[in-house]
């Protein structure tokens, strides 16, 4: 079994963090005499004063620090700073400042990217999309909520969530002004720990030009779309507009750690996790996977000593952050990943490092043993969620592994159809920022969608937009919503922050214990057959076989089973 470690809002936050997003990652291009940035992890037991003195002696200047974990972003003009700093008794590890996680990139044209998001298919969208069912107008298109009984006749009736329960979305941001999100969005508690990065070390675009003079986006903005979709799935309210989330009455907090481009840097991720702990957030959703290393390997012979040291630093720093959050009562939920691989087996990675921190850097092929770590899904005390489609099968793209997957949840599978051809409505429908739909030319002059994957719903003069996406990024927020309902139902008053609180261990036990057990398919080696539309109008047959190991209630496809909102809060 792959070793489980690493990654996973009105109170005055403790001194654990520096001011968020004032000094986000800058260019990491360096040579002697040119400024570069590093992430430095202090050794356990070393005081901040000792660490500061050591870093200064090595020629570094601290620009950002998290004392809860002992992690600092350090700028230096000395080309040998990284090598020298690793020799310091006060330092546990040093890494070149770069992305450690990525929200899967969303594509509108190419099929079968590892994001597993496909935004083409049948049926355009407006009010009444899907069969008419009780609930908000687009509830008929939410097969996902029907599968886990998060419906007007299901969990909404028993426990729709408590506004005192805080759910942090560690992602690319939340469109807090979306008409089907804003009622549940807490702007005051929200934070943005990122700063836009126009280009990488090779000059290739990362986030592109800054939208704001400070290059720091407001806490109610999402220029990527990923975080908004996730937040909506968790907690869009029951308000007679569009659709509702799993826990329609809980409070959403933007704890942003992702760039507009979807990259996640070590310091913002650690800051986001520890902020959630200090601010009294009950549950966090982490629908991203790690970059630049898809897997972090402490001693892979395929990696240079510097790369090995960098990956060890990432592991140690994020382990500390996860442990800190767990001690402070945060339930952490993560997407399992979209690589269609068994995490308990040896695999090959040819995509890392995929963020250019030094000129000329490029990915290379390396063998990945089970001892390597994917973050945050393999993190200590993190609930890893695989994805299922409308039929209940594991989605064709979802990662899996017996002992890796904790639970499963609807994430969509657009090929889960009778003929094996794509149907966008078999994805997950959730909120979409109108600003992005307009900027991408997906709306007509009158505001109606001109692409099949975007849906509009209007209530009076208020209109809102939604889109179909698929991925384990879409499965994870379903489990996060169920966790929020469990805290709402069984939590007790939080004496430190007010609101409600419940031990993360209890939340996980209830979630796993009330999940619908699902056995492996028979035969256990399941072959997926898809017919992928080509540019010339023909279909290409694509097959892949994934083998499920373990019994019902404890197997590699579904873990303890598919989460169930109604069962989790009692019938």
UniProtKB/TrEMBL annotation:
The yes or no answer to whether the keyword Zinc is present is no
Designated name of the protein: S8 family serine peptidase
Query: Bias category Basic and acidic residues: which stretches?
Result: 115-126
Entry superkingdom: Bacteria
Identify the residues that the record assigns to the Peptidase S8/S53 domain, covering every copy: 163-518
Keywords associated with the record: Hydrolase, Protease, Serine protease, Signal
Record-stated family? Belongs to the peptidase S8 family.
Q: Where is this region: Disordered?
A: 115-140
Q: Where is the signal peptide?
A: 1-23
Query: InterPro entries, per this entry?
Result: Peptidase_S8/S53_dom, Peptidase_S8/S53_dom_sf, Peptidase_S8_Asp-AS, Peptidase_S8_His-AS, Peptidase_S8_Ser-AS, Peptidase_S8_subtilisin-like, Peptidase_S8_subtilisin-rel
Q: Where is the active site?
A: 171, 226, 473
Q: Name one Pfam family in it.
A: Peptidase_S8
């Amino acid at each position: 079994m792959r070793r489980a470690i690493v990654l996973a809002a009105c109170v005055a936050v403790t001194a654990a963090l520096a001011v968020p997003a004032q000094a986000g990652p800058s260019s990491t291009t360096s040579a002697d005499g040119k400024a570069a940035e590093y992430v430095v992890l202090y050794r356990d037991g070393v005081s901040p004063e000792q660490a500061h003195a050591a870093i200064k002696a090595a020629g570094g200047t601290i620009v950002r620090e998290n004392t809860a974990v002992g992690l600092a972003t350090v700028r230096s003009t000395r080309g040998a700073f990284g090598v020298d700093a690793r020799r310091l008794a006060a330092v546990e590890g040093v890494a070149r400042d770069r992305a450690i996680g990525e929200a899967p990139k969303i594509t509108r044209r190419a099929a079968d990217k590892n994001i597993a998001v496909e935004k083409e298919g049948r049926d355009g969208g407006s009010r009444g999309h899907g069969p008419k069912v009780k609930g908000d107008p687009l509830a008929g298109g939410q097969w996902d909520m029907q599968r886990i009984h998060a419906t007007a006749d299901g969990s909404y009736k028993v426990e729709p969530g408590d506004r005192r329960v805080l759910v942090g979305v560690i992602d690319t941001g939340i469109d807090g002004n979306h008409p089907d999100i804003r009622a549940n969005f807490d702007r005051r508690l929200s934070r943005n720990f990122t700063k836009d990065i126009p280009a990488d070390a090779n000059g290739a675009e990362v986030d592109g030009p800054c939208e704001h003079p400070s290059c720091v986006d407001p806490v109610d903005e999402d220029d990527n779309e990923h975080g908004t979709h996730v937040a909506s799935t968790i907690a869009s309210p029951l308000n007679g507009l569009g659709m509702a989330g799993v826990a329609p009455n809980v409070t959403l907090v933007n704890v942003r750690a992702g760039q507009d481009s979807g990259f996640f840097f070590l310091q913002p991720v650690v800051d986001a996790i520890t902020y959630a702990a200090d601010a009294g957030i009950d549950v966090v959703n982490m629908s991203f996977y790690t970059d630049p290393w898809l897997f972090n390997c402490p001693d892979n012979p395929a990696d240079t000593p510097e790369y090995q040291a960098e990956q060890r630093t990432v592991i140690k720093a994020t382990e500390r952050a996860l442990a800190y959050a767990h001690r402070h009562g945060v339930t952490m939920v993560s997407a399992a990943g979209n690589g269609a691989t068994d995490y308990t087996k040896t695999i090959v990675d040819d995509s890392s490092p995929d963020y250019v921190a030094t000129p000329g850097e490029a990915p290379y092929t390396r063998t990945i043993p089970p001892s390597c770590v994917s973050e945050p899904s393999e993190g200590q005390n993190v609930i890893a969620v695989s994805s299922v489609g409308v039929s209940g099968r594991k989605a064709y793209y979802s990662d899996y592994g017996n002992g890796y997957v904790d639970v499963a949840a609807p994430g969509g599978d657009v090929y889960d159809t009778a003929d094996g051809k794509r149907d966008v409505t078999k994805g997950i429908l959730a909120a979409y920022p109108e600003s992005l739909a307009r900027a991408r030319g997906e709306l007509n002059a009158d505001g109606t969608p001109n692409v099949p994957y975007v849906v509009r719903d209007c209530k009076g003069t208020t209109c809102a937009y939604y889109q179909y996406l698929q991925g384990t990024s879409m499965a994870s927020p379903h489990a996060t919503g169920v966790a929020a309902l469990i805290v709402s139902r069984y939590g007790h008053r939080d004496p430190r922050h007010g609101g409600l609180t419940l031990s993360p261990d209890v939340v996980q036990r209830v979630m796993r214990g009330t999940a619908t057990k699902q056995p492996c398919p028979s035969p256990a080696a399941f072959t997926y057959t898809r017919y992928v539309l080509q540019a010339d109008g023909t279909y290409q047959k694509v097959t892949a076989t994934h083998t499920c190991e373990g019994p019902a209630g404890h197997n590699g496809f579904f873990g303890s089973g598919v989460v169930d909102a109604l069962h989790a809060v009692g019938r």
